[in-house]
Amino acid sequence: MPTLIVLGFAGLLAQLVDGSLGMGYGVTSTTILVAAGIAPAAASAAVHFAQIGTTLASGISHHKFGNVDWRIVAILAGPGAVGAFIGATALTRLSSAAAKPIVASLLLVLGFYVLYRFLRLGGRRPQFSGQISARFLVPLGFAGGTLDAFGGGGWGPVGTTTLLSSGRVEPRKVVGSISASEFVVAVSASIGFLFGLGAAGINWAFAAALLIGGVIAAPFAAWMVRHLSPRVLGTAAGGLIIITNTFTLLSAADASAIVIAPVLGALFLVWIALVAHAVRAVRRERTPDPVLITTT
């Protein structure tokens, strides 16, 4: 029972991050399950079954707050479902250890780009123009779905990172659309795990605990992304991408805790400082100029 309570809180916190920044639920939850001794395939399966409920709740919440671009969802969902099914069935037979450092390296580069893009705006508000083409979204959906099932998480990091870096969709729409389309990905991955593992290979109690925590958090996360400034949200997302994938790369290189702890600690402090800087900048933008007030 204590384990299930801990997983419930983990699901709640993971959904708050995922629903407000568009990433984090799968990676966070899978990491906890693997640390508890669950095999990677079984851990990813439990997380994806939980995500059927959490992504549905998250998608509905984001839709109510106007955070979803349904054109993006419609194009991403199909390829994402195909990739998720392939990734899930492959994970039951293969190891993802070799693929993770490559993917993490690409995401790390994109994370720095996202951070740069939103910090370099100075006092100007970010402008989002143009439309993402289907030729761009289809391979993105397939790659994100495959990695999500194969690595226990990845739909958010791949989809959110790439769409943010394009600069054509405002952050809250990116987060809402990725969260809404993830429901289809979670369903497809779960079916794949059922084929590969069978019902007996899935820890349903763990999945239920993660589900309950995530469903409780979903409406709050959708509200957060609605009211956060695009600049603050983009800065927060970029920092999260960098920290997450730095940890993945250090772990893949068998770095010791003595090395990992100070590196991640330093990155975390820099991330907090940058987010605080973005918040101060937004407040300055929204505060009327006293000189203009007195002259008018």
Q: Could you report the average pLDDT, rounded to the nearest whole number?
A: 80
**Order of helices and strands, N to C?**
HHHHHHHHHHHH
Task: Tell me the structural class.
Answer: mainly alpha
- Unreliable spans: none
Q: What is the CA-atom radius of gyration, in angstroms?
A: 19 Å
Number of contiguous helices: 12
Number of strands: 0
In whole angstroms, how far apart are the ends? 65 Å
Helicity range of the residues? over 70%
Rough outline: globular
Q: What portion of the residues fall into strands of 2 or more residues? A: under 5%
Give structural notes.
The chain has 296 residues and is an all-alpha fold. It is built from 12 helices and no strands. It has helices at 2-21, 25-35, 40-64, 70-91, 99-119, 134-151, 155-166, 171-197, 204-227, 230-252, 257-286, 290-295. The model has no long low-confidence stretch (mean pLDDT 80).
Task: Provide key terms for this protein.
mainly alpha, 12 helices
Describe the protein's topology.
Layout: H1 2-21, H2 25-35, H3 40-64, H4 70-91, H5 99-119, H6 134-151, H7 155-166, H8 171-197, H9 204-227, H10 230-252, H11 257-286, H12 290-295
Helix pairs in contact: 1-2, 1-8, 1-9, 2-3, 3-8, 3-9, 4-6, 4-8, 5-7, 5-10, 6-7, 7-8, 10-11
Put the structure in a nutshell.
With 296 residues, the protein is mostly helical.
